[in-house]
Design goal:
The protein has about 90 residues and is α+β, with helices and mostly antiparallel strands. The chain is built from three helices and five strands, in the order E-E-H-E-E-H-E-H.
């Protein structure tokens, strides 16, 4: 059963060629859509998942009808992977 992702709440810088979000669900959605995770930035308690592409390039995955579906299993596995990364980063 596909999962529909709501529109992103974070607004990345328009001139940037990277998209960052601290929303775990959004990051898992992008990872499930097979966007490569560039890095995980962290500062204190906040973690930001950084993906390639500008805000405009990434937005089409969220806003186009029919484009915001991912396989539930991929989404679940992406969530697990990102949670593991955040826990790993916390202990460094």
């Amino acid at each position: 059963m596909p999962i529909t992702m709501p529109m992103p709440m974070s607004q990345p810088k328009p001139e940037s060629d990277e998209f960052g979000t601290s929303d775990l669900g959004q990051a898992a959605f992008l990872l499930a859509k097979e966007l490569p995770l560039l890095r995980v930035d962290h500062g204190g308690e906040r973690v930001v998942f950084v993906f390639p592409g500008s805000a405009e390039q990434t937005a089409h995955l969220f806003y186009r009808p029919g484009q915001n579906l991912v396989d539930a299993r991929k989404f679940h596995l992406s969530l697990r992977e990102l949670r593991g990364l955040t826990r790993q980063e916390r202990w460094r």
